[in-house]
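debug: dumping io for the single-chain case to check the tokenizer round-trip. Nothing else runs in this session.
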Amino acid sequence: MSTIVIVESKAKQGLVEELLATYSKFTPIARGTEGNISLDLIRNQDDPDVIILYQEWESREHYEKYLAEFEKLGKRKILQTLVEGDVNIRFFDPTSV
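debug: decoded output
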């Protein structure tokens, strides 16, 4: 069964376009990573500073392997300069409903 990963971040005031540009550089890497099924970047209509990465991976382990490499390369530190607080990562199982 695949794993849905939702990554939520809120851009610091005035930095949302820079955050989107940064994500646009990182998302092709994730999409090309073994185990990635899909990745969509979506923006909150009520608070446009809130960005969600909605991802489907073959397994949580695939995502965690990707995230470890992402952090090892210092990419997470780059994001931390653009977002308020912590990036929220949540894991979900698809249902048959």
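debug: round-trip ok. The mean pLDDT is 94.
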